[in-house]
């Protein structure tokens, strides 16, 4: 299938940067499902990257599984090391989806170009330092230029954000959640193989862990969350949740950081963020949604049906934590990822069969009080609410689904979203129809149980 080069500089509803990468080609395949379909705002796409020939190969791969009859697609050469190429891409696009990581190495030039040209930006980043650095450096200019910059629009961290909010919806108006723990269980009939970009980001995150703390200390203090009840104890290193029959160990993912940023932004803006040109009806809907949201302590654990199932995750974490702090160790980790993660990550990525056989379940176990008045006097919580989010393989199936649905929400409802700024995804998409869209595309949200002690 040949790409059709469009000439109008404003015809790109969507540009996918890194379209030939491991994740990028899956994002292309997902985007084609919604190109020129009924009621879709997606009419034109630009596929961008360093090598147009590789992008063409990705397009051919992606079109093998789509029945889209006619495509309006441009292939554009754009390189993160060439600012002019990025300005050219962003000036012609309403929205850029950035799939080029690790983002601490390659993300800032893309954000800068989007902010400069007033183009909206979404990415699949799971790197807290990058996200918070972009907020610190670009938020004010993004507001001024009308560029909406939102990171973590893949598996990191939409299931966590939307899953947290779905759990909160189950608490009544008088109830007060205190703690919500998410337990991520990955399953596959074949091998579970992670995204190599995620591994590289984790290694670099350990190497630069001090920079995140320095950045936070250098910034003005944000609002403090007011959560009813005492702060929960840390608990055991390996924790057993009998109600969901899983063992869990803390997962140092971006999810807890991203959820907290959303809650802090909500604390500072109790009615949410007003849309650039929203109607009175939409404004009331937004205010009603956010009035029902409540802050709680939030953490994420990787989970397994047996303690032995956690061994691979623990060993990988130990190797990354120890070797990631020294340059020689990082070189070893990045050269032999399969060895140090017991096959969890490998340079060549998963096979299509491995991708199709994998799935995830993210359990949200909430504890709190049936009435907020009990929080100050009670020593123990009296209510437990368990919800879950389920979906296909996280890196190459769920991430493209989530990213595209975020993009379609943004393109369809731009007037109801903030004019511009750098924000976590939850505060932007929480009051939209994103959850419903995800459910229509294979990611389910369920109430499992609601118990009083």
Automatic annotation (TrEMBL):
The root-end lineage is: Eukaryota, Viridiplantae, Streptophyta, Embryophyta, Tracheophyta
Cellular component GO terms, alphabetically?
A: lipid droplet; mitochondrion; plasma membrane
Name used for this protein in its record: Saccharopine dehydrogenase NADP binding domain-containing protein
An example Gene Ontology biological process: glycolipid biosynthetic process
Q: Which Pfam families match?
A: Sacchrp_dh_NADP (PF03435)
| Gene3D superfamilies listed in its UniProt record | NAD(P)-binding Rossmann-like Domain
Annotated Saccharopine dehydrogenase NADP binding domain residues: 15-150
Q: Which organism is it from?
A: Aquilegia coerulea (Rocky mountain columbine)
Q: Which InterPro entries match?
A: NAD(P)-bd_dom_sf, Saccharopine_DH-like_oxidrdct, Sacchrp_dh_NADP-bd
Q: Which family does it belong to?
A: Belongs to the saccharopine dehydrogenase family.
Q: Which domain of life is it from?
A: Eukaryota
Transmembrane parts of this sequence: none
């Amino acid at each position: 299938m040949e790409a059709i080069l469009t000439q109008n500089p404003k015809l790109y509803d969507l540009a996918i940067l890194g379209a030939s990468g491991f994740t990028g080609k899956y994002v292309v395949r997902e985007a084609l499902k919604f190109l020129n379909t009924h009621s879709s705002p997606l009419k034109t796409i630009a596929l961008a990257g360093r090598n147009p020939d590789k992008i063409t190969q990705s397009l051919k791969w992606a079109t093998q599984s789509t029945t889209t009859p006619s495509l309006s697609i441009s292939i554009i050469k754009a390189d993160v090391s060439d600012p002019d190429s990025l300005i050219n891409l962003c000036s012609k696009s309403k929205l850029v989806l950035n799939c080029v990581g690790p983002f601490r190495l390659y993300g800032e030039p893309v954000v800068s170009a989007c902010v400069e040209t007033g183009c909206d930006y979404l990415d699949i980043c799971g790197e807290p330092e990058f996200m918070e650095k972009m907020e610190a450096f670009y938020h004010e200019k993004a507001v001024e230029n009308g560029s909406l910059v939102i990171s973590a629009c893949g598996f990191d961290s939409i299931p966590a954000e939307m899953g947290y909010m779905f759990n909160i919806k189950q608490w009544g108006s008088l109830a007060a959640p205190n703690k919500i723990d998410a337990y991520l269980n990955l399953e596959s009939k074949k091998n579970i193989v992670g995204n190599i970009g995620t591994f590289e980001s984790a290694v670099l995150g350990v190497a630069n862990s001090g920079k995140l703390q320095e950045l936070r200390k250098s910034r003005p203090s944000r609002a403090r969350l007011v959560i009813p009840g005492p702060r929960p104890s840390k608990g055991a290193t390996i924790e057993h949740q009998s109600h969901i029959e899983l063992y869990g160990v803390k997962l140092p993912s971006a999810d807890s950081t991203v959820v907290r940023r959303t809650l802090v932004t909500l604390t500072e803006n109790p009615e949410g963020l007003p849309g650039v040109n929203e109607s009175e009806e939409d404004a009331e809907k937004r205010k009603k949604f956010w009035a029902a949201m409540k802050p709680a302590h939030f953490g994420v654990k990787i989970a397994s049906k047996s303690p032995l199932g956690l061994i691979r995750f623990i060993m990988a974490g130990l190797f990354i934590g120890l070797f990631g702090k020294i340059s020689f160790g990082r070189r070893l980790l990045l050269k032999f990822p399969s060895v140090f993660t017991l096959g969890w990550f490998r340079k060549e990525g998963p096979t299509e069969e491995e991708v199709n056989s994998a799935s995830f379940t993210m359990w949200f176990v909430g504890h709190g009080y049936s009435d907020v008045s009990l929080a100050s006097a009670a020593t123990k919580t009296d209510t437990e609410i368990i919800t879950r989010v389920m979906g296909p393989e996280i890196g190459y199936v769920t991430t493209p689904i989530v990213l595209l649905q975020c993009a379609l929400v943004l393109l369809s409802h731009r007037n109801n979203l903030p004019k511009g700024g750098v924000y976590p995804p939850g505060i932007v998409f929480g009051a939209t129809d994103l959850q419903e869209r995800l459910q229509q595309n294979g990611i389910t949200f369920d109430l499992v149980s609601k118990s009083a002690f």
